[in-house]
């Protein structure tokens, strides 16, 4: 087969490992040829691609980012998009199948294309861990690793100054990064979009910890909204295009905690470092296995399906199941974490 | 309740995180008291313990090792061991339950004690990932992380000198560390105890890679035995007490590869650095959740049971299931990895 | 001797290593006793201290922060401060000498006290590397290490999205952190307080890099002021107490670059993670040697002097020399770095 | 100018950063052209080289190893070597100058060639820090960083098991890596080639630490020879080609300590991971500055000279001064470290 690869959506450590393993598996096991579309769906729609040889994927398991580039182009919204044009492009360039690596939006596009007869399979990608169709995705573990390391550093400074430290992590709609990195770092409060918590409660946790002579660490997901403070937060949050506005929730919260408790408080917004750089060993293994599975799916003509992790196994899932709403942090996982808050 | 904790067997990143979360959960949710037995079962048998307060577990989520110390004492083999003495010790010191954190041997002891009426629950611990009763254990991810990082370093040196690099990792009976770290590092051959591979095959992989102008990376688990070479290996391997002998399999293999292929080859035996130091975020989360679950099991009087990871959930397993033979790397996982060998 | 230690000013990796080595050296070589003043000069002024034994400094070489806590109290501005009260406190508690570990302000206070007859020696501390009296201080290398690692991550994301990435690092008055971390990360522009650069120049560098198909990385010290834009920046920068205001120079610059060049641009403000956590090996060695030297200075009654690094040697410097203005980045070092900008 | 670059001797983190900065500086400041000789002097002697463009050095500041490859070929010992042939090769390929990056042997060769009229300048490279002609070389800080991190891990395992841990680090002739990494990790004994220490003394230090309930950490350079034990060590050490024999000094010492003290003792030989992988920020800055200086030296026709670090400045040194014997650890530096041994 002659297979086209594309990476779409936000950057994520492990994309290159997927590309590498799909290509190596295809060349070795099936004698496949590969092309890489540049800048996600745009490359496919515009026929902008490059051949990918074994040499091109050399050493990629450990490299962050994507050699193909990425964009937020949607296969149906682009002026030249849609299944007919895409099928035409594939035919013109003699491409038998597309492996689309991306998040919810990408997989939704892939599903719709497959339903419209385009031979597409998917690989799920999200550092946010917000897809129901898989236990975990690559990129999430790297984000946890980076955030945990950063919080370990914040804690020593907090203790030296007897300050409260606030760390704002990624997670506009779900709180998985905050939950796991906060638990790993021993945070005294974790605030996530799925759970309303009011400022009084946050300040109570902070004060409990401070009164024991310790320095409170508060982890907040960028999408958290404090209960009863929607107004205060109006105009906060994010731009339409997903870019954080000046002074996100971390900054806002820092001011409120200091104001109410009188405890010196400092914010750090971890930002883009959470989604770049070399993937962890965990993410490289997962991405490598996903890449091989996606290649197998293409050979099985399992269009409209994607690779997925269930327990320790890589299985196949219908892309439809990836699109059935975001995977929120369940209430019981938050309750579990909450046991360690405060005091 | 008044609960005793013990850590037993080889060191493992995450032990302190288990201790911390069990203690914090117990104090906060149930008003429990805690003691820590020193040096594993020995401390329990000899009544050598210390009280553990909230202050003692402060900051422990990130610390490697175990504040309780560990040993290889077995609860039945110790002269003063056995269920009656242990029950007596618990009564004397007013201890209602024991949480035993350890590997296969420890859990077997815990199971037998529970069967003999001692109130014990377990937490599985093995950096080797060799327990069937849980998807993963804490410590494994940290070992992968350390080994992967080391191999990334070996590769640049291999490339600079056009050498073959051999990395010997832990895994006397199972090859999980070799499999995952080798896949993460893009190894060209992975050799594990579960799979017989002969030297001709290894050298063929090495030569394929070298002939493409690249530097082969061979990852070998300490317990790997090359097919047909038992004799050559006689006297190699490990001492009765588990200590590696001078010149383990990595050294041996390095000599053979160089001899047969004429390619300059170097060995690095990663050794004890794989099991020490700060746990990864992944392992901290898992250990923290295990600690809380074990505490709940004690309150549920689920004696003879242990915490276990299944998919993304922490569940309870009968300790008997932990003892049903080692969890070997399945043939299909090795075949999956093998796709990327050689060439 | 009975010696008091204090740490003062902002947190800095290596403070604990200084404390440890001074204490171990004193106990072993001279039979000294040690106390630690809590919260910097405040502890000395108020007689708030604790005995420090060998046990207390165990394992401290690798720990970030300071076990003594720190504050910004000045020995002369505190209501009960001044040389007479301090001498009285020292006499009351039988303390023969003080080792003051801190930055410019701390060392100025130490100098003045020594001139007023109080037996004080100093250890220089600044992550900013802004002291003329020593080649380097501990904490600086750790800050470079953290910032470089963060920028490595930002670069992969920049490349994946063909974005310009801006990284704001510490350095309100001097640009050493920006200079070294930017050079280490291969930045395409480095902007520091010592050098006026106008926006046109910055945008030209950014466009040169972007036009070659690469993703520009711009590193900016928090204290940089673009030429001719003082007005635009009015109200930006920092609060009186040193806390960054919402939207520092990194945010501001990001907006301007995007506006003018049309290239998608993102800011990351590294913030407090640059000054916390475990010190690098380099900083541990330097801090350890400083601690031992300061102890020797106390025994030599070299009041008003401090430990200093010159080349590879630890020497003694008059505290007066530490206070002779900030050590700015010399023009020739900036010119050297500039060779690699743009294009 | 048209300038040839070569890297020679053992691998070292920072080689690629030297190449990159020399090339970028040359292209931008002087309009130079560059070629890279493959495999050190061999490439020069045999005319085996490749053009190096700006594109080829992209992203190299952070990459370990050398894109040019390396070897131990000597410019005078190779059958086709010697100044006449080399000059002829340079003329044939229109090369005006050579920048040779390497250790003592390489720089000796460069000096002799320069004396014989070949236009060569040098860049010092050694992870061992054994060159008198410069305060530090790139690669050393990375080695310290890796070794320190490994020892931090060994310590937690030592403490958990109440064992003595031995770490063997690089340093066949000088003990700088052992000295700095041991001091950084808080080692209880550091053993280096420059200082004779007998086993009784080592065991006394180990026992002092163990008797306080702590776990001794012993750091030994591979070239250390215990006093009075030359016989016992006969046959130990290294092969003629520099490869460690089975069971180096670390293994040997581990056996002796356990034998004499009865304390369970374990060895870890860090090996090749010390010289591979991404350089630290410190080493990237130093290597970058060295590369730019070497390029300037070529334009100044300062043949027979090399870049050198003195304090914080990059200066020029005669290559002769690089060859005036190894830079050993001075006795006073060992005495300084020794203060923290034992107890």
TrEMBL record, chains A, B, C, D:
Q: What is its main location?
A: cytoplasm
The pathway where this protein functions is: Carbohydrate degradation; glycolysis; D-glyceraldehyde 3-phosphate and glycerone phosphate from D-glucose: step 3/4
Q: Which GO terms describe its molecular function?
A: 6-phosphofructokinase activity; AMP binding; ATP binding; diphosphate-fructose-6-phosphate 1-phosphotransferase activity; fructose-6-phosphate binding; identical protein binding; metal ion binding; monosaccharide binding
Record's keyword annotation contains Transcription regulation? no
* Active-site residues from the entry: 128
Q: Which residues are noted in the entry as Mg(2+)-binding? A: 104
Catalytic activity, EC? 2.7.1.11
Which of this chain's residues are annotated to bind ATP?
A: 10, 72-73, 103-106
Function recorded in the entry: Catalyzes the phosphorylation of D-fructose 6-phosphate to fructose 1,6-bisphosphate by ATP, the first committing step of glycolysis.
Query: What family does the entry list?
Result: Belongs to the phosphofructokinase type A (PFKA) family. Mixed-substrate PFK group III subfamily.
Protein known as: ATP-dependent 6-phosphofructokinase
Look up and give the organism this protein is from. Nesterenkonia cremea
């Amino acid at each position: 087969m002659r297979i086209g690869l594309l990476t779409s959506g936000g950057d994520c450590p492990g994309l290159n490992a997927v590309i590498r393993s799909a290509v190596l598996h295809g060349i070795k096991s099936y004698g496949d040829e590969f092309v890489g579309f540049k800048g996600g769906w745009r490359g496919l729609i515009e026929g902008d691609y490059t051949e990918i040889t074994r040499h091109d994927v050399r050493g990629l398991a450990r490299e962050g980012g994507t050699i193909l580039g990425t964009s937020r182009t949607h296969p149906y919204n682009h002026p030249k998009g849609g299944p007919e044009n895409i099928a035409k492009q594939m035919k013109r360039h003699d491409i038998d199948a597309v492996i689309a690596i991306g998040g919810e939006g990408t997989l939704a596009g892939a599903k719709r294309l497959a339903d419209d007869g385009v031979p597409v399979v998917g690989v799920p990608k999200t550092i946010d861990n917000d897809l129901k169709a898989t236990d975990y995705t690559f990129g999430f573990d790297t984000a946890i690793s980076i955030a945990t390391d950063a919080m370990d550093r914040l804690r020593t400074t907090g203790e030296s100054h007897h300050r409260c430290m606030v760390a704002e992590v990624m997670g506009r709609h779900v709180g998985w990064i905050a939950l796991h990195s906060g638990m790993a770092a021993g945070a005294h409060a974790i605030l996530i979009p799925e759970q309303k918590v009011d400022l009084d409660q946050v300040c109570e946790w902070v004060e409990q910890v401070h009164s024991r002579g310790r320095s409170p660490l508060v982890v907040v997901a960028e999408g958290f909204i404090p209960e009863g403070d929607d107004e205060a937060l109006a105009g906060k949050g994010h731009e339409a295009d997903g870019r954080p506005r000046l002074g996100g929730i971390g900054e806002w919260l820092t001011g409120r905690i200091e104001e109410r408790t009188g405890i010196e408080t400092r914010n750090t917004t971890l930002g883009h470092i959470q989604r770049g750089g070399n993937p962890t060993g965990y993410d490289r293994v997962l991405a490598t296995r996903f890449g091989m599975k996606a290649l197998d799916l293409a050979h099985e003509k399992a269009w409209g399906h994607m690779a997925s992790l269930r327990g320790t196994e890589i299985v196949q899932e219908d892309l439809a199941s990836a699109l059935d709403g975001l995977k929120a942090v369940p209430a019981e996982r938050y309750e579990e974490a909450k046991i360690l808050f405060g005091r």
